[in-house]
Design goal:
single chain, alpha+beta, 2 domains, 4-stranded antiparallel sheet, 3-stranded antiparallel sheet
Length: about 475
């Protein structure tokens, strides 16, 4: 049965159930055991690497260290969410040890991007995880790609699984950039990162020589990439991308943009609990050891409320990621071609206007806006009011809502000028991609609706208006 409760109410109700089940209780003994296991395994692999001359054994040791490094990153991730201890200084120290020292990913950089990712998941304008120099995770990003990045985007449905092996290198490079760009915020990273360099370049160079030490570190960094990518690529890509005008509650936002993977205990271990990603995004302060139980409760809660709950195997999630990446690339090419063709034929049509549909977005569902509904329920669907006035002891509020699919509108004269049809001969060759970038302005038809609330905050009257125009 579909619920009419607001997102805030749903969130509070689910949170209450999880609290009653003890899902927020710390797990200090499990966390401590995990940290000891990671340090011991890392030390074992490191010792073998420095003293074993056999190449096959050394490669096995590097693979062991790479796997352990990802799990060290899981611990740093837990520390970042303050689920290991309530002492923030101790969490920071743990994060620096397990992330900066052991893996070379600056903990401060991780905190910077992750704190912005969680509340703005899959929002292209605010989620740093949606930005990539090579790949295009949403249509507008594909329009801006040039040169090699454009070629990668056009083949990204399969290239992503190859190039993800380089993620270890990109994360370390991004960490160094962050440290140079934000030296004060990265003060702790600057203190710990030299120890990471000594661990992997200083001591190994003295024992194995410079060439072997550098090669070991490069191979280790490369080995981290496929494991790390297999965990994080499938969490959000291919789920809903949040548009600039969409206004979701935290509950509906995280449910719509996140998927869960397999639920076996082996999957829990391999993914560091992040296979239960819906629960992690809804309640980041749940310790990973309790996410399994939280998942059972959340799944049942969503089923009872008629809320879609995305849960699939890792292989199906990978197929969905590839399909989505391919769709983005094909859509970008289609829109670009349509804009260029339209620009060329417009002069012959006497300067008529045109619009290219770039995506399908459902109109807002107004079925829950009925007399008796609370203002919280109304604004969970419609967002904030654009105007209000007092009437008979109550309030009359006006809202705007989506009427249909967005369109990328382009002024014909701008198109002709930008393509250079009346300019130097080389512009038609160089400028089509730049034209598409100028076409990113998205227009959406809005409807208007007036809702009158009584003194108790309940709906007493609804008046639907016409189209409010393009915004």
């Amino acid at each position: 049965m579909t619920t009419t409760l607001s997102g805030k109410t749903l969130y509070r109700n689910l949170q209450h159930q999880l609290m009653e089940a003890g899902c927020f209780k710390p797990t200090p003994w499990r966390q401590s055991a995990g940290m000891i296991a990671v340090l011991a395994t890392f030390g074992l692999g490191y010792g073998i690497l420095l003293h074993e001359p056999n190449l096959a054994v050394r490669l096995a040791a590097l693979l062991l260290i790479a796997t352990t490094s990802v799990h060290a990153g899981f611990i740093g991730h837990e520390a970042g969410h303050n689920t290991i201890t309530k002492n923030r200084a101790l969490n920071t120290a743990i994060g620096q040890i397990f992330m900066t020292l052991l893996t070379g990913l600056a903990y401060g950089h991780f905190q910077d991007i992750h704190r912005r990712h969680h509340p703005h998941c899959n929002d292209p304008s605010r989620d740093p995880d949606m930005q990539s120099g090579a790949f295009s995770l949403y249509l507008e990003s594909a329009w801006t790609k040039r040169g090699l990045a454009d070629w990668v985007t056009r083949h990204q449905s399969w290239l992503i699984w190859i190039l993800i092996s380089l993620q270890g290198f990109t994360l370390k490079i991004d960490s160094l950039r962050f440290m140079c760009r934000e030296p004060r915020r990265a003060a702790a990273d600057w203190a710990v990162m030299p120890l990471h360099a000594a661990l992997w370049l200083g001591l190994p160079m003295m024992i194995l020589g410079p060439g072997a030490a550098i090669l070991n570190y490069a191979v280790l960094t490369w080995m981290i990439g496929p494991y790390l990518g297999s965990v994080f690529l499938v969490n959000h890509i291919g789920t809903r991308v949040i548009g600039p005008d969409e206004n979701f509650s935290h509950f509906h936002h995280e449910i719509a943009t996140t998927r869960n993977l397999g639920s076996s205990r082996l999957t829990d271990f391999l993914f560091g609990g992040l296979n239960n990603h819906i629960e992690h995004h809804l309640f980041p302060n749940i310790p990973k050891a309790r996410l399994r139980r939280a998942r059972q409760i959340t799944r049942e809660f969503c089923r009872d409320c008629g809320i879609a709950y995305r849960e699939q195997s890792w292989l199906k999630a990978c197929a969905e990621v590839s399909r989505y990446m391919g769709d983005v690339a094909r859509s970008a090419r289609g829109v670009a071609a349509a804009l260029v063709i339209a620009a060329l034929v417009t002069p012959a049509l006497g300067g008529c206007s045109f619009a290219i549909y770039s995506a399908e977005i459902d109109a807002t569902d107004l079925s829950t806006i009925q007399p008796g509904a609370s203002r919280e329920q109304v604004e969970d669907v419609l967002g904030d009011a654009v105007a209000e006035e007092a009437v008979n002891g109550g309030v009359k509020a006006t809202y705007q809502y989506d009427q249909g699919a967005p369109m990328a509108h382009v002024d014909p004269q701008l198109v002709r000028d930008y393509l250079g049809l009346y300019g130097p001969f080389w512009e038609p060759i160089l400028m089509p991609v730049a034209l598409v970038k100028r076409a990113e302005r998205v227009s959406r038809q809005k409807g208007s609706i007036s809702v009158t609330f009584g003194a108790d905050g309940k709906v007493i009257a609804v008046q639907q208006g016409g189209i409010a125009g393009d915004v």
